[in-house]
Each structure stands twice: as structure tokens, then as C-alpha cells.
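pinned: reference chain
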Amino acid sequence: MDIVIDFLINTVHLKDNDTIILGNSGGPDSMFLLNVLLELRKKYNLKIVCAHVNHNVRVESDSEQVFLMNYCLNHDVLFESMKIEKYGDDNFHNQARNIRYNFFEDLVKKYDANYLMTAHHGDDLIETILMRIVRGSTLKGYSGFEKIVDNGFYKTVRPLIFLTKDYIKDYDDKNNIPYVIDKSNFKSKYTRNRYRMNILPFLKEEDTNVNRKFLKFSEILEEYDRFINKELEKSIKFVYKNNEIDLSKFLDLDILIQKKIIAYILEDIYKEDLMVITDKHIKLIMNLINSKKSNSKICLPHNIDVIKNYNKLIFTKEVKEVIDYNIELIKYALLPNGHKLEVVDDIESNNNYVCRLDSSEIKTPLYVRTRKLGDKMYLKKVNGARKIKSIFIDCKVPLDERDKWPVVVDSEDRILWLPGIKKSKYTKLKSEKCDIIIKYE
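pinned: its C-alpha cells
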């Protein structure tokens, strides 16, 4: 216990009137930490807010919430709780974790707290490191989790990282600190439990202080990660902006920095939920970057798309729905891409943003629509038809814009014009006969 108190005083630098949000399940670890903070409150007048999430998946969940609420009431500790009423179809543990930390952060804001503390201990660190080694991860991911994370307006602190589960439980029992036991922690269907029940006993038998070795391993990786991050900072501002990588500059960097930039972006997208991302995802992205295809994409967990558009690599945090449209073009048409088509009486320009047609050669009325599978267009002075897909590729139209690009057709669905890109054999020069002029802007 002394090492935890020393850490909180001399490393975290707790002071008078600090406010702490403590994530507390009611289990041995979080009850141990709560009692450490109660001891420190005698000296520093700390404001402690006990934050409990009722996961609502076991019959004991409600009674555990009542137990913790009463304990806090008897020890003059503020108690905040929430109950998860419904889960989606995604991974249960990931969902629960996200809900839990969103709740904690809301409380940090509500109480203007300095710290969010959780009861992760040395055994948890070992399990996390081993799981990520087996799954594959980033350098930061392989280090497990940090003792202190600076979130800007508050810090996340894990003071029990120096201790083992056995030490914590023995201390609770000797000092009559009550706690509840989550029986699901002993079910082998959960991956973490299998590591806990099968691997940790072997490691502890080999070395009773193995938790310290893993903590040292974690700290060394963090040191290397910080060093590489300094090199990263020198490069990333030149190649990454607004969720886009400039590949023409990116490919000039050392391969280690390239991979670190990708890891940095993924860590920023997924925050601390790094169990979702493995080294295979970084490899997939690197393969995408180095592929000969100018336009392609890969899909990552949680509906994240990574799109290669020629010299750009774009990370999108949500899937955008493509809206099909088919609009009759009478006088003008407002398009979903923010542009418009307008029929005008006359115009000087004759570039790809203007289309001249002879109504006697086509079938009116005209329409503007999104592309269809197998679309082809007959070009001037070209034998046969060319696929719209090929025209998009030749003209380097970004992949994510192709499905919403306007296609002007007549009533027989003959493609007359790809505004801003190509004209068909039906379009006329300024000197030729025409009675329909359309402008794209």
C-alpha cells in the first residue's frame, strides 16, 4: 500500500481540494483503491466521487450497486451510477468499456475533476501485454497501458499498477475491507480470463515478481515510443492534415516513420480501444499505399474507411450514404454534390463545364442522374463506346466522388455529357448548330 500512496503523493502530486472520479465496480481492486483515497483524504481534504456502472448482465448487478451506494453513504463519499439497459450487436466488452468511459468523462466535466482513477493493477497489465502480443498491435499497444495519461483538462491515473491481484485481495481481507466478487471473471469463455487462469499462474510460479518485469517492459516501450514520437512530430505536420496523408511526401520518409504515422492516426481514431486494432491493419494500410491501384479502399473495424485517391490517403470516421438521383433537367437542377446544372441562352466558353446539344439528334426531355453499372459513353472521334468507369480512372476522379458524379442523359438514357470531365459525340462546338446550352457550376 505504501508504494501506491508514495506514487500518488510524489508522482501524481495530489494536493488539497483535488477532485477525483473513481471508477468503482465494488470488486476487491476498486474497493482497495477507494480506501487508499479515504486515507489520503484525511491529509489532503480530497473530494472523491465514486462512479459505478451497473452492467446489468448478472443477477447480482443490482445488489452490488446497492452495496456500493451504502458504503459510500457511510463514508461520506459522493456516489454516481448508471445502468446499461441495452447493448447492441457489437463486441460486449468493447461496448461496455466505451459506455463506462463516456460516463466517467461526463462526471469529470460535471465535477470539474482533476483526475479519473481506475483500479487496474499489475496482473491486468500482464494480461493486456500478452493479449496484444498474441493479437498483434502497435508499439504503444504492446506497452499495455500507462500509469498516467494526460487528457488535457484532466489525467487518468492507475495507481495500483505496481501491485498484484493477490496482494490487493489479501490486504482487503486482513483489513476488513468489504467487496463483491464478479463470478464472470472465472468463466473461460472470455479471452482475458483464460490468460488470467492459465498463463499468469505459470509466470508467477517462474518468478513471484514477474509483474515488476512486465511493468519495466512496458516502461521501456513507452520510452522508445516517446522518442519515435519526437521524430514523428517533425514529419507528420508536412504529410498529414485534415484526415488526409499526402502520399507524394509520405513515401519519402523512412519506413519506420511511415508505420508510426499510420499507428498514430489509428491510435487517435480508436483512442485507448487498441484491442480492436492489430498490426495486420497497419500492414493492410501499407499495402494499400504501395499498391499500383490509384483508387481503392479498405474497411477497418467500427466502419472506418481508408481510401486511396491517387496521391491522397483519406481516413473517414463514418460511412457516408451514397444517394442515387435521377432529376429531369428543365431549366436547372440542384445536385447533391453542391453543384448545379442550368440551361442558358448563350455563353462564350466551350470547355467541359459547358455542353451544347442539337435537340433533333437526341430525345428530350433530358435528365441528370448518378452512374449505373456498365454505363458507357460514345466520345467524339473515338471508335466504339468507353466505360464511364474507365473515363473516371483516366481523369483521376476520386473514388469516393464517382458514385455521386452527375451524368447527363437523354430520354433514351444515352449519355450525353459528364459535366466537368468529358463530352459525348452528341455535343456541339460553338460554331455548330445547337439549340440547348447547359452550364455546370
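why pinned: The radius of gyration is 31 Å. The CA atoms of residues 363 and 412 lie 6 Å apart.
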